[in-house]
Amino acid sequence: MKRSARVAYSFLFFLAIVISWIMRDFARPLIEKIPWIMRAATGFEPSDKWFGQQAVYRISMGNFLFFGCMSAALLGVKYKGERRGQLLQHGNWVIKLVVWIAFNALPFLFPNGLVQAYGWAARFGSGLFLIIQMIILLDFTQSWNDAWVAHGEQDERWLYGLLGLTVTCFAGVLAISGVLFYFFKPAGAGSCSLNVFLITASLLLCIGFSGLSLLPMARNGSLFPSSTTALYIMYLCYSALQSEPRDYECNGLGHRLNAASGSTLVIGMLVTLLSVVYSALRAGSNTSLFMLDDEDDASDDGAMGTPLIDAEAVAGAYNTLAESSSAPGQVSASREGTAAAAAADRSAIEDYAPISYNYAFFHLIFALASMYIAMLMTGWGAVEQERDRLDVGWTSVWVKTGAEWVTGLLYSWTLIAPAMFPDRDFGF
């Protein structure tokens, strides 16, 4: 039950992605029948891209409102026995499905100005979602490194495995950079100075923080987190360059994607869904990473530190009292009473056990991810978004480039911050 709720919400989000995907390309027949939306097209002939954008924004807005309302309704839930958690997070799925459908339909009744305002707000919400993903990535790689180093104290094969992964990641960085120079500085396409600058700057960024991680001041520095972060940064560089318009002469890869564009779209959406689901699970169950609560929250595997009451000890105490009774009838009756009391006590303990992840923050991640899907589907609202490709346009290029540099600088900060502020506790 602990994970089934999260899986169900992930499935609802997946349905929203599929619906957005379909409406992005085939929304014209529906939108043309809605007069208050068509008023926005007065004075010009709307294109299929305009109809798709209108539909995607509204579906994204509906999911944002649904998950946002769930987040607000579950704010402050701390214990498993609280009614809000049982009824809203884990129960009443038929009602929630109906409400989710209603939320998806409701924005089609909203005025155009409100939807356009949401489109602008989605740009900022999407940026926040990307930053959260970066923080999760950095925390994950550091935790992985610490775990394998700890195992290596008992068995050095773990350290050899860590070394092998580090070398593989750095080799991947060099391989990706070679591929990028090949595809995005094609022969006969001129200097392509912008693409050369972006690729070279990404490599220099990777070299910079990898070297920084080896300095004595980087107390938590290690090459493995540096290598995985460098690999992610080069992926972001690739993702930014492949978002360049297909007719741009320096986008050699775009010229080769005629037959592969459909499969590229499918893979991109699946990767996005997996990253969103992982982000929600990771962020929701690790509230200390985002400093939402001063208390240590429970992990997903049910570990909750020191329990408030030991259920087994309570049950054992009741059994001891029962066995100490003198009369056989009294022993039998007391045992029955003990079993009932122990069961009730276990139920009470379970009700007051801390929740294993933050329900409100879980839904907040999905609300921000709904904004991100709108931007992904429409090329961050750019008019040059191509119908048969996902996340194309100069806006996408610069957003991803910015995300790449924020990732590199954020990782560099985690290396130097402990030395600069030795009295503070950093969660990386």
From TrEMBL:
Compartments where found: Membrane
UniProt key word DNA repair: no
Gene Ontology cellular-component annotations: membrane
Tagged with keyword Membrane: yes
Chief place of localization: membrane
Entry's transmembrane regions: 7-23, 55-77, 97-114, 120-138, 159-184, 196-215, 222-241, 261-281, 361-383
InterPro entries: TDE1/TMS
Membrane-related topology note: Multi-pass membrane protein
Keyword line: Membrane, Transmembrane, Transmembrane helix
Family: Belongs to the TDE1 family.
Name the record gives this protein: Serine incorporator
Organism: Tetradesmus obliquus (Green alga)
